[in-house]
Amino acid sequence: MSENSNLGVNPKKIFAIAIPIIIQQLSHQMQVWVDRAMLGHINPEFFSAVGNSLVPYFAVISTIVAISSGTTILIAQSVGAKNFELSRKYAECSFVGNSIFPVIAFLFFFFCSPWMFKLMGVQSPIYEYAVSYIRITSYSLFIIGIVSTCSSILQGIGFTKMIMVTGIITNVLNIFFDWVLIYGKFGLPAMNIEGAATATVIANFSALPFLIIYVIKRKKMPFKIKVRNIFKFDFNLYKNVFKIGVPSGGEYALWSLGNLFVVSYLNRIDIMAAGIYTLLFSIQGLSVILYAGFAQAGMTLAGQKTGENEPKQAINIVYKCLSFAIIVCAVVTAVYCAIPGKILGLFTSDALLIDFSTPFLLFLTITMFPKAANIVVGYGIRGTGDTRWMLYTQIFGTILVMTLCYILIFIAGLGLWAVFITSLADEAVRSIINMLRFSKGREFFLLKPFVKN
């Protein structure tokens, strides 16, 4: 019996897309961990400075990638509808379109970061370190639009192996240049935190040509990108990408806004509180990395099935991806609970800091499961073309985080615990809302493709 007839889900298709993405994102996270681990063992103030910098920086990166998801969704739906000419046009117009916001973001970080960190409540000397770090790191924004577009094209088609390869190349180069520039090898001066930022930029620029050449020259692509058309920039067509991508970008921007408020609250409590918070959430982020590939595979395949006008298969695929994500969370939880001290010890040698952070890490394992449901089902909803719904739920979530966290910190006096309790409440409530929306869709919605053959 065929897959179409019994609505079965082929796990091979899911894993073929998911595994390379997981490895790529794990490589990227390792890049961040290496920076923080090397700097954290030199000076705890560097550790906190990077933590403060990564919150707004990754907020912008996440927003850029989310806007680029409009490219992924429309290409996936076009490929599903066998309209490869339209897929090509969406790919070509996205290179310029997806690069506009990153350039604006660079100008903001380079010229306005001192004001931003003061608003966040960052104190000296961490303030000076953070400004220096983010000004250098932000040079990567000049290419992030191109990188995210290439990745979106490949993901929309379902070819994700080169995304993985590029991530590995970037990570290896970053580790090498971190070692050289942070510690001052080969006769170079030790640059400390500025060396870590410079290493990241060099690594990102060095890996870019591999990705561009692959996307443009690969013979097995269902369509061939014409370089001359990239520079023509079809704004009227890009408006469709923008229309689909901006709600996702707005969603991530709002999520990041909530995080910025949380960091500003923590900076009022203690000079190291923000560093501890970002450390623990980056460690928790390992579980997200290990199943985010399944979430994005769900979005890609749901988009293709929507383009084929097969809504029930689109929904079944997403729930199969969620089952894989839950298994990942269970395994990660077991590891974190078994050796929490060793996990934290990878990032700091401060015994008191490790002892203080361990209960929070164990509490975060509870949050992993509703977070997985929220992310995977959310990506599935986006794959059908409905990106506005996730924006609406994030508006609610951001208000909840900003309000509840403030109450628990400054009125209830729960300190750092307030942040983790708020995170659990936010993920639990929004996962329930999104599951109900998607479950209702299984019975009452008829998902309509955004593109037609």
What is the element layout, followed by pairings?
Elements: H1 3-6, H2 11-42, H3 44-80, H4 84-97, H5 100-119, H6 126-137, H7 141-157, H8 161-183, H9 192-217, H10 227-232, H11 235-269, H12 273-307, H13 311-338, H14 340-345, H15 351-383, H16 388-411, H17 417-444
Helix pairs in contact: 2-3, 2-8, 2-9, 2-12, 3-4, 3-5, 3-6, 3-7, 3-11, 3-12, 4-7, 4-11, 5-6, 5-7, 6-9, 7-9, 8-9, 11-16, 12-13, 12-15, 13-15, 15-17, 16-17
Describe, in short, the structure shown:
With 453 residues, the chain is mainly α. The chain has helices spanning 3-6, 11-42, 44-80, 84-97, 100-119, 126-137, 141-157, 161-183, 192-217, 227-232, 235-269, 273-307, 311-338, 340-345, 351-383, 388-411, 417-444. Helix 7 (141-157) crosses helix 9 (192-217) and helix 16 runs antiparallel to helix 17.
Characterization of this structure:
The protein is about 85% helix and about 0% strand. It is built from 17 helices and no strands. It has helices at about 5, 10-40, 45-80, 85-95, 100-120, 125-135, 140-155, 160-185, 190-215, 225-230, 235-270, 275-305, 310-340, 340-345, 350-385, 390-410, 415-445.
Summarize this structure as a short list of keywords or feature phrases.
globular
Order of helices and strands: HHHHHHHHHHHHHHHHH
Q: Characterize the largest beta sheet: strand count, sense, and whether it forms a barrel.
A: none
Query: What integer value in Å does the Rg equal?
Result: 21 Å
Strand content: under 5%
Structural class: mainly alpha
Helical fraction equals over 70%
Number of strand segments:
0
Q: Figure out the total of helices.
A: 17
Termini separation comes to 27 Å
